[in-house]
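Below is how a single chain appears once it has passed through the pipeline. First comes the sequence as given, then the structure the pipeline wrote out for it. We keep one example in the README because the format questions we get most often are answered faster by looking than by reading.
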Amino acid sequence: MRKSMFILLAAVVVLAATPALAELQNVIVGGQIRIRGNYYTNLQTGINRPDLQWPAAYLSSRSIGTGENFNFPGVVGLFGWDDKENSLDFVEQRTRLNVKADFSNEVGAFIEFDSYGWWGEYGWWGEDFRSNYITGGDFITPTDDDVEVYQSYIEANEMFGLPLRLRVGRQEIALGSEWLVGVNDTSSFFTGLSFDAARLTYATDMFSVDLFAAELAEGGPFEEDEDVWLYGLYGSYLGLEDIVIDAYWLWVRDARRLSDTNLGWFGEWIEDVFSLDDYDPTNLHTVGLRGAGTIGAFDFEAEFAYQFGDADQVGFLFRPFFYGDDDADFQAWAGNLEVGYTFDMAWQPRVWLGAAYFDGEDNRDISFWEWLSPFDSPEASVSFNRLFSNWEYSQFLDDTTLSNSWLVRGGVEAMPTESLELRLVVSYFDSLEAFDAPAHINLFGYRIPIAGPFSFWTMENDTPLGIEAALYATYHYSEDLVFEAGWAHLFTDDGATEGQYVLLNGLGFSGGTGDEDADYLYVETRIQF
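Resulting structure:
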């Protein structure tokens, strides 16, 4: 299927139809420098260690059915929740430089370069300019990916005399509050996110409509249909004072080829006869509604979405022996709600409450008869896919991919001065469908697996993940320069220590080797020009 290519070609043709001989009228140079120092405690850095609760051996006995392509995410969690673990500290920096050119006839162009890395990291950030302090020599080969083209697009406005804009090229796409599609600049690891896309926008004072197509992965020039595309239709109604109502449809189509085995012509013929190894393109459809705004002293943010479609790329990961689940489907919904009230008094305090829900599955446990039969078909665990979210609910439990879980949270915000903001946030996290882990006993503070090869012998883990308290302070030194600091503490619960599949959109394991709490501290400065 090459209709995606036709979409881009049509966009170029329309753009070419704009009046010719546009003259350069204005050039603006801008950019941003963002530097952040991070410190995490009780971080787990080893993999497949003997004291892990769920050793890799269980993967070969059909117990948890996680994907081998993810380097056994079901075995190792990021945090150990154990004071015997290492801590992690690093300073990250992102530098952006852009040029915007405005031409006559409502034509414009935008180019932005960026560079992201860690201070002093060998082989990534510091190798281009750090010398060997012992010998004074510097024989390190510079990398070729320090600076990237982050955005590069051309656009035409007021096309055909209408409030219509066409933007073609690499660009950021931020929809609504960025709950499902955003720019990936929240919290740490703020690498940014841009799309190679064509985007058409019709905007008036009453409403706006966005239609776009973005290529996420190119399968190669020799394949007719082996690409990954994101399509979207996003509409906003602005006819209510201080309130916006959005409705949208997002479609990810992944046509990359999937094959469990390569058995030669006879084996492949057998697979065709019995419909084995028969994967279709993945079609992830997301439809949703959003409302946000202010009513007097109240403010609100509410969004609900439902996902459906073929999930063969997920089913491919669940292979106990040879074949995965080629009947896996997306059937999940999610919601996010936040309501706040601002008091008309000194410091302008705002109190707010919020909740979020991300539907999920955990079908990794098997019965005795399923374990006994080598012909039993696996059943994938498909949870709500957060797509390209820029919402991070936790400094420990969420990297914008938290799913198969629900949470409630609340906070207080205040401004002691015009330039100083203070925020206190308290959140409670719980998982939905629990992971049935291999049977175990507790011995001297360690969980010792006793199921051995009998992976049908399981014990359900507890679902509560923990309570997180966080305090943030932001100081606006000027309109361009900002300083920020924060501290977060996670009171771990049994669900976090025993482990649940709540990361990587329900495909990644979050569990440790202890039950210690964890801390995160950071300081940040950024300047915009």
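The longest helix spans residues 3-16.

See the next section for the split statistics.
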